[in-house]
Amino acid sequence: MRLRNIKGSKEFIDASPFVIHQPEEYKGRWSEFFQNHNPIHIEIGMGKGQFIHQLASQNPDINYIGIEMYSSVLYRALERRAETDLENLFFLRFDAKNLMDIFDEGEVDRIYLNFSDPWPKDRHAKRRLTSSNFLSIYHVILNKEGFIQFKTDNRPLFDFSVESVEESKLWHIDQITYDLHNSHYLEGNIMTEYESRFVAEGKPINRFVISR
User: Is the pLDDT of residue 94 over 70?
Assistant: First the structure.
């Protein structure tokens, strides 16, 4: 469930030093923005940011960009960011369908998709972040040695995602589990806010990792 609109959230985002306001200017030049040549990892639909904050804290030699299209959700992530001194984490209020406008071919080293909106109606299937449309976009911007990690509690969405991957002929499933927290893939797992709640409720977490 998305957060209700927070009054002043758009203005807060516009004024935040942790938001990249004109990302198109850095296409092919993200090393200039970060002032280094470290790998770039992105989380699409990062919610309140628990997952990406922990990753950035653990990996100072990796540049992280959290992408979220809902202002009220991004607002919460920025509140958390203001309480840290991380220099490798920034955010975008951005629609992921336009990723090729801001990232050059092979410019991203890793993509995380965590508990994405399932868009359950068939007519909205193209909006799912694991649809063939998005897999084609990721194919362009992701480094050929990179990979995508996807987690969800939604089994119909996961089944759809696996089918999309197999039908694309562009990707290979390297890891897959339908119950992450009772699998040998759990080591090193970082939980999102949603994941913590779902695990507490006893819901199994589906996860796959795909690469070319």
Answer: yes
- Cβ atoms of 106 and 144 within 8 Å: the answer is yes
The label of the residue with tokens 């198109």 reads: 24
**Residue of 61, 109, 117, 153 marked catalytic:** 117
23: left (phi over 0), alpha (psi -120 to 50) or beta: alpha
Residue 117 annotated to the active site: yes
Question: What CA–CA distance (Å, rounded) separates 99 from 201?
Answer: 34
Which letter, b or e, does each residue of 123-157 get, where b requires 16 or more Cβ atoms within 10 Å of its Cβ?
eeeebbbbbbebbebbeebbeeebbbbbbbbbeeb
Q: Can you tell me which residue has the tokens 């199994």?
A: 204
Residues 187-202, mean pLDDT to the nearest whole number: 96
Rounded to the nearest 5°, which phi and psi values hold at 92? -130, 135
Query: What pTM was computed for the model?
Result: 0.95
- Indicate if the pLDDT at residue 3 is higher than 60: no
pLDDT at residue 9, as a whole number: 84
Rounded to whole angstroms, the Cα distance separating 164 from 203 reads 23
Report in angstroms the alpha-carbon separations of 149 from 27, 77, 107. 23, 21, 17
| For the chain, percent of residues with pLDDT exceeding 70 | 98
Q: How deeply is 193 buried, as exposed, middle or buried, from its count of CB atoms within 10 A (0-12, 13-18, 19+)?
A: middle
Residue 47 CB-half CA count within 13 A: 16
State the average pLDDT over residues 111-130. 97
